[in-house]
């Protein structure tokens, strides 16, 4: 919410609940937070000190998860530092767009952080893997079906979510739910996007040509996804004497010492591209 500073990993405190307790983040898995801390502990042992920030670990883990699922490999610029403060629950609600958002509202949010329509479509392709809760899309089913949804897809969703408020989940990508590929865009062309924020990418005239291009070419999608992830990973980063390198990703360091053993530098998008970000 404040930039790429790993603030979402922080537990709440006496000042209030952390970002994890905000409604949009309640589906984040505790096992994922543990995995990040386990990686941080191993890195501290290997590096003999707190050298790698939790923010950098998150960026690298995201890339490696994409690769492990069949997606593209891309360079990850490093050197971020961690925020000692988390955003408030109200900040999360006011900044994080809900799955009911349409393209104009999504673009309004992204323009403020330096991302454009191509980035929006490419990053939305992350929905080629994962699950969605009925409560995130059942407004498209009840009381009247969303006309942008194919009848067959509507029927499948109603079997999973037979009434509004059903506590159930379904895959985000009906074709290849466990593989990182371009089938998400094929779904949109066939009116099988799960969320409003998905399907409106195909309905909207600005983003539709980008969806169609990615549906035709997985190579184009993979290349742009890497570029857009690098751009997103450099939003409002903390570097130099800003922030800290947390010894525990779930809690800010006590005192003022952060344990960083050398100065940090975040590469720019241009630097990363010059080093071979293009595939």
Automatic annotation (TrEMBL):
<dbReference type="GO" id="GO:0020037">
    <property type="term" value="F:heme binding"/>
</dbReference>
<feature type="binding site">
    <location>
        <position position="97"/>
    </location>
    <ligand>
        <name>substrate</name>
    </ligand>
</feature>
<feature type="domain" description="Plant heme peroxidase family profile">
    <location>
        <begin position="1"/>
        <end position="253"/>
    </location>
</feature>
<keyword id="KW-1015">Disulfide bond</keyword>
<keyword id="KW-0349">Heme</keyword>
<dbReference type="InterPro" id="IPR000823">
    <property type="entry name" value="Peroxidase_pln"/>
</dbReference>
<keyword id="KW-0106">Calcium</keyword>
<protein>
    <recommendedName>
        <fullName>peroxidase</fullName>
        <ecNumber>1.11.1.7</ecNumber>
    </recommendedName>
</protein>
<feature type="binding site">
    <location>
        <position position="181"/>
    </location>
    <ligand>
        <name>Ca(2+) 2</name>
    </ligand>
</feature>
<keyword id="KW-0325">Glycoprotein</keyword>
<keyword id="KW-0479">Metal-binding</keyword>
<feature type="binding site">
    <location>
        <position position="19"/>
    </location>
    <ligand>
        <name>Ca(2+) 1</name>
    </ligand>
</feature>
<dbReference type="GO" id="GO:0006979">
    <property type="term" value="P:response to oxidative stress"/>
</dbReference>
<feature type="disulfide bond">
    <location>
        <begin position="54"/>
        <end position="249"/>
    </location>
</feature>
<keyword id="KW-0408">Iron</keyword>
<feature type="binding site">
    <location>
        <position position="173"/>
    </location>
    <ligand>
        <name>Ca(2+) 2</name>
    </ligand>
</feature>
<feature type="binding site">
    <location>
        <position position="5"/>
    </location>
    <ligand>
        <name>Ca(2+) 1</name>
    </ligand>
</feature>
<feature type="binding site">
    <location>
        <position position="7"/>
    </location>
    <ligand>
        <name>Ca(2+) 1</name>
    </ligand>
</feature>
<dbReference type="GO" id="GO:0046872">
    <property type="term" value="F:metal ion binding"/>
</dbReference>
<dbReference type="InterPro" id="IPR019793">
    <property type="entry name" value="Peroxidases_heam-ligand_BS"/>
</dbReference>
<dbReference type="InterPro" id="IPR002016">
    <property type="entry name" value="Haem_peroxidase"/>
</dbReference>
<feature type="disulfide bond">
    <location>
        <begin position="134"/>
        <end position="161"/>
    </location>
</feature>
<dbReference type="InterPro" id="IPR033905">
    <property type="entry name" value="Secretory_peroxidase"/>
</dbReference>
<dbReference type="GO" id="GO:0140825">
    <property type="term" value="F:lactoperoxidase activity"/>
</dbReference>
<dbReference type="GO" id="GO:0042744">
    <property type="term" value="P:hydrogen peroxide catabolic process"/>
</dbReference>
<feature type="binding site">
    <location>
        <position position="128"/>
    </location>
    <ligand>
        <name>Ca(2+) 2</name>
    </ligand>
</feature>
<dbReference type="InterPro" id="IPR010255">
    <property type="entry name" value="Haem_peroxidase_sf"/>
</dbReference>
<keyword id="KW-0873">Pyrrolidone carboxylic acid</keyword>
<keyword id="KW-0376">Hydrogen peroxide</keyword>
<feature type="binding site" description="axial binding residue">
    <location>
        <position position="127"/>
    </location>
    <ligand>
        <name>heme b</name>
    </ligand>
</feature>
<feature type="binding site">
    <location>
        <position position="3"/>
    </location>
    <ligand>
        <name>Ca(2+) 1</name>
    </ligand>
</feature>
<dbReference type="Pfam" id="PF00141">
    <property type="entry name" value="peroxidase"/>
</dbReference>
<keyword id="KW-0560">Oxidoreductase</keyword>
<comment type="similarity">
    <text>Belongs to the peroxidase family. Ascorbate peroxidase subfamily.</text>
</comment>
<feature type="binding site">
    <location>
        <position position="176"/>
    </location>
    <ligand>
        <name>Ca(2+) 2</name>
    </ligand>
</feature>
<keyword id="KW-0575">Peroxidase</keyword>
């Amino acid at each position: 919410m404040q930039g790429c500073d790993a603030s979402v990993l922080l537990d709440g405190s006496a000042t209030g609940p952390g970002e994890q307790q905000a409604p949009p983040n309640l589906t984040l898995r505790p096992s994922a937070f543990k995995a990040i801390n386990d990686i941080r502990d191993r890195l501290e042992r290997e590096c003999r000190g707190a050298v790698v920030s939790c923010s950098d670990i998150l960026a690298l883990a995201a890339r490696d998860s994409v690769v492990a699922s069949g997606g593209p490999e891309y360079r990850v610029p490093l050197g971020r530092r961690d925020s000692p403060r988390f955003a408030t629950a109200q900040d999360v609600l006011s900044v994080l767009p809900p799955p009911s958002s349409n393209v104009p509202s999504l673009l309004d949010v992204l323009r403020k952080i330096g991302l454009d329509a191509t980035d929006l479509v490419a990053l939305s392709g992350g929905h080629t893997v994962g699950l969605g809760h009925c409560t995130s899309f059942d407004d498209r089913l009840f009381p009247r079906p969303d006309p942008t949804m194919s009848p067959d897809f509507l029927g499948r969703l109603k079997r999973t979510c037979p009434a509004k408020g059903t506590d159930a989940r379904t895959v985000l990508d009906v074709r290849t739910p466990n593989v990182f590929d371009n089938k998400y865009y094929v779904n949109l062309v066939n009116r099988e996007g799960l969320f409003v924020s998905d399907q409106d990418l195909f309905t909207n005239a600005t983003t539709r040509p980008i969806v169609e291009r990615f549906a035709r070419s997985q190579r184009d999608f993979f290349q742009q996804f890497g570029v857009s992830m690098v751009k997103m990973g450099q939003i409002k980063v903390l570097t130099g004497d800003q922030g800290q390198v947390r010894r525990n990703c779930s809690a800010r360091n006590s005192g003022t010492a952060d344990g960083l053993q050398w100065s940090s530098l975040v590469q720019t998008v241009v630097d990363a591209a010059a080093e071979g970000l293009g595939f």
